[in-house]
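Long-time lurker, first post. I've been practising inverse folding by hand and with some scripts of my own, and I keep getting stuck on stretches where the C-alpha cells seem ambiguous. Below is the full C-alpha cell string for one chain I'm working on. Before anyone asks, I'm not after the true native sequence, just a reasonable design that respects the backbone. If someone could post their per-position residues I'd love to compare against what I wrote down in my notebook.
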C-alpha cells in the first residue's frame, strides 16, 4: 500500500500528549488524507472529543463535540458513536485505521465490517493485567483486548512483554506473528549540549507526582547522598497528587536546602531547559505487582537520554536493561540504598559521568519518532 496516496484515521483516548500525537505529526505530510479523533478520558479537565482533518499536510477541518458528563460507561458509548459518525462523514474510504486501545479498535472493526476500513491496526500503548479492581470490568477489558488482537491486521505494542502477558491470559500464540514492538521515541531535537552549562551536582526527576513513580524513595535517598556529596541537590519537575506529601517529607528529613519543586510546568520546552541544566536524571519506578510501567515503555527515560542525561533507573521497565547495556546509566533494584549509591557514584566519578552523557545521546538518536514510524509502516504493509 502506498502511504503517500492513503487516507489514515487515528482514533485515540487522550489525557496529555503522547504517542498518538507524535504519530499525527509524523503522518501529516506523508499521507494524502489524515483524520485524527481524540476522546478525552472522563477525568480530563476538558472532556470534549475533537476532530482534526488534514489534506496534503494542511489542516482543513477542526471541530469539537460538546462537553460530556456522566458515568464512565456513557463516555465510552459516546466515543464509539462519535468515531463511527465522524468517520462516515469525513472520509470515503480509510486505508489505514489506527485504533489506540482496544475500544477504539472495536469501533474500527465495525467500520471494517461495512467496508469503510481496509487495514486495521491495534496500537497498544499500555497493557495491564489488572486494569480494573472490579473483576467484571477487568474481564470486559481483557475480552476486548483479545478481540482487538484477533480482528486487527497488525498489533503495535510498546514492549515485547505485552505479547507474553496476553498469552498468559488466553490470547492464542498463533497471533504472535502479527504483533510487533513499537517503542516510545524521542520527540525533542537530539543535539549536542554543552556540559559546561550544566549544574554539576543537580539531580533531576521529571513527571507526574504519583505513588508508583518512586519519588518518595528518591527524597529519602537524598539524606544519604548529601552526606557523601554535600553539594548535591534535587530538582523535582512537575506536579501531581503526591506533591503536598513530598514537600512534607522534605521538611521532615530537613532537606529544604537540597530539594526544590517546580510544580506543574505547562510548556515542555521549559522542562527541556531544566533537564539540560542538570547532571543526572532519575526514574525510580516502584517494583510493585500492579505497576503499569512493567508492561510498557515509559517516555520519561527517553526524554532524559535525548537531553544527554545519564539515567539512574529501577529494573522495572525493559528499557532499564537497555540503558545499562548501552552504558547510559545505572539500572538498580527498587531499593533506597542502591539508589543513593548509584547517585553518589555518578556524582563523584567524572569520567563515568561524561562517558554516560555521550552514550545517552547516541542511544536517543536510535529512537527518534521518524525512525520508529518509518520502520513500523514498512513492517505493517
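-- Answer (accepted) --
I ran through it position by position. Result:
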Amino acid at each position: 500500500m502506498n502511504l503517500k496516496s492513503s487516507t489514515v484515521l487515528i482514533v485515540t483516548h487522550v489525557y496529555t500528549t503522547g504517542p498518538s500525537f507524535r504519530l499525527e505529526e509524523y503522518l501529516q505530510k506523508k499521507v494524502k488524507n489524515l483524520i485524527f479523533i481524540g476522546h478525552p478520558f472522563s477525568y480530563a479537565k476538558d472532556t470534549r472529543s475533537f476532530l482534526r482533518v488534514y489534506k496534503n499536510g494542511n489542516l482543513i477541518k477542526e471541530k469539537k463535540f460538546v462537553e460530556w458528563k456522566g458515568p464512565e460507561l456513557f463516555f465510552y458509548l459516546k466515543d464509539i458513536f462519535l468515531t463511527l459518525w465522524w468517520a462516515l462523514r469525513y472520509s470515503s474510504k480509510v486505508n489505514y485505521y489506527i485504533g489506540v486501545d482496544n475500544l477504539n479498535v472495536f469501533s474500527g472493526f465495525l467500520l471494517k465490517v461495512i467496508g469503510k476500513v481496509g487495514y486495521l491496526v491495534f496500537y497498544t500503548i499500555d497493557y495491564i493485567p489488572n486494569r480494573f479492581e472490579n473483576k467484571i470490568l477487568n474481564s470486559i477489558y481483557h475480552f476486548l483486548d483479545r478481540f482487538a488482537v484477533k480482528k486487527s491486521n497488525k498489533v503495535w505494542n510498546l514492549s515485547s512483554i505485552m505479547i507474553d502477558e496476553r498469552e498468559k491470559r488466553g490470547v492464542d500464540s498463533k497471533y504472535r506473528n502479527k504483533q510487533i514492538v513499537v517503542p516510545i521515541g524521542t520527540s525533542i531535537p537530539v543535539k549536542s549540549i554543552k556540559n559546561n552549562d550544566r549544574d554539576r551536582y543537580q539531580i533531576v526527576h521529571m513527571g507526574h507526582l504519583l505513588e508508583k513513580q518512586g519519588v518518595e524513595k528518591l527524597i529519602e535517598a537524598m539524606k544519604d547522598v548529601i552526606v557523601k556529596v554535600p553539594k548535591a541537590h534535587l530538582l523535582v519537575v512537575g506536579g501531581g497528587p503526591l506533591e503536598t506529601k513530598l514537600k512534607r517529607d522534605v521538611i521532615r528529613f530537613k532537606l529544604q536546602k537540597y530539594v526544590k519543586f517546580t510544580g506543574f510546568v505547562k510548556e515542555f520546552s521549559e522542562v527541556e531547559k531544566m533537564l539540560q541544566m542538570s547532571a543526572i536524571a532519575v526514574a525510580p519506578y516502584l517494583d510493585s505487582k500492579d505497576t503499569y510501567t512493567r508492561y510498557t515503555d515509559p517516555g520519561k527515560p527517553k526524554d532524559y537520554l535525548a537531553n544527554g542525561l545519564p539515567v539512574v533507573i529501577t529494573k522495572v521497565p525493559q528499557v532499564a536493561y537497555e540503558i545499562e547495556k548501552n552504558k547510559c546509566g545505572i539500572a538498580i533494584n527498587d531499593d533506597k540504598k542502591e539508589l543513593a549509591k548509584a547517585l553518589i557514584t555518578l556524582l563523584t566519578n567524572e569520567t563515568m559521568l561524561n562517558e554516560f552523557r555521550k552514550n545517552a545521546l547516541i542511544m536517543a538518536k536510535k529512537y527518534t519518532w521518524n525512525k520508529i514510524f518509518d520502520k513500523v509502516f514498512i513492517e505493517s504493509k
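A couple of notes from the structure itself: The mean pLDDT is 92. The first strand starts at residue 7 and ends at 14. Happy to go over any region you disagree with.
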